[in-house]
Amino acid sequence: MIRAALERLESDPAREAVVGLDARGAVRWRMSARDVLAAIGGWQVWLDAQGVEPGERVALDLPRGPELLPAHLAVLASGACAVPINPALSEHERARVLERAEVRAMLDAAAERPSAGGPVRLAEAAPGAPALLIFTSGTTGEPKGVPLSRENLEANLDGLAGTWGLRPDERLLHALPAHHVHGLVLALYGSARMGMPVWLMERFDAERVLGALAEHGIAVFMGVPTMYHRMVDAPGPDAFPSMRLFVSGSAPLAEADFHGFESRFGFAPLERYGLTETLIVASNPLDGARVPGTVGRPLPRTEVRLANDGEIEVRGPGVMCGYWQDEETSAASFRDGFFRTGDLGAMHESGHLRIAGRLKELIIVGGSNVLPGEVEHALAGEPGVDELVAAGVPDADRGEIVGAFVVVHEGGDPAALRELETRLRERAERELAPYKRPRLYRFLAELPRNAMGKVDRRSLR
Ligand code: AMP
Predict the structure, then answer these.
(1) Which of 20, 158, 357, 454 has the fewest CB atoms below 10 angstroms from its CB?
(2) Considering only CA atoms, which residue is closest to atom 17 of ligand 1?
(3) Which pLDDT score, from 0 to 100, does residue 461 have?
């Protein structure tokens, strides 16, 4: 992927490569391919000065500005491994990620790129070596590292470029977080690989995004369901003369939003399904019917099978080899070479895969994953709490929000419960990234349990 990205930049140095939009959708800065190459060269000098060797990890924690793309490409071109940092993490969460990744250097806003860089150097990397290490939520608050190799990235992006018909002359509007597979691999690396100009918006705002799509000649947009939900009812234009493709993923797209979006704008969002561990697994077709409530068919060279209990299992060139420094979890995550997704699947009458539910205890808040265990681990130690369970609660805007269900030691009168809730909210603010904090607290006399004595999270929903 990095080789193709550099070739695209070098083949036409004058072309538009990255454009920065502020939160209102106005253009703030522009970079040509030549500018991006110069910045990559500068960051490579910086990486050398830090003593970064091929295979070593470099954490990236950058704003959505002009350095974001060149810094990532420089790390990849140097044969090192990029570790994107989620800016929303609490100090404690962030420290754990940096420790687990054993990073050699931190490329953040404080790092200074030398203005005089040399020509870009493409280092050889060992086959299968991690090019990207993404930390996802871990069950006990302990992050799980997902290493993705150059081969994983290239195979998946190649499959997507064909499946979605991506072309170098198309502009992509980018309003997704840039530390997650969706915004980083698909949108940022994917467009660099194709030579597509990326229009980086400071943050997502439904009305401003609609305006930017209409005004700036954008052809491709990738979003999470919450974005589509908000765009359906947002003020702003209804027609996008240059748009070709809206892609949705990271969480289920409600059928009402699929239809609402199609009837207002005339575009059926193309829903796809994937995980950090597997990259994209299945997609609705570019040509042919996009079936709401389904995620389409497997990508080329990707095999999907359903286990006896309905769990979706995946094998293919985008699938990681195993979790970072965690042989036990890795071994438990594969069955005969197939990765066990923890999602439940069913075949729809159209022949498309349908995501029927989740075996794993994942809560997806507006496209960002939270495991109940990490919320419980952070909050259950609060004095006065006997038991605390986190569960996903349905929410029209975010898909799900985190709910905390609490049993207290001694009954608890209403004033005491209010005071406990305040302390729990304060504790969540200190310990947890904002999207992981419970929005809703409920105090119960006891928790619902199944016959095995396990807490029944489904009934808490
Ligand atoms: P992540 O690793 O953050 O990309 O999260 C992966 C999880 O997101 C999957 O295991 C699914 O549970 C969920 N997911 C991703 N795409 C979809 C989709 N189109 N429909 C339903 N769930 C999805």
Answers:
(1) 454
(2) 251
(3) 81
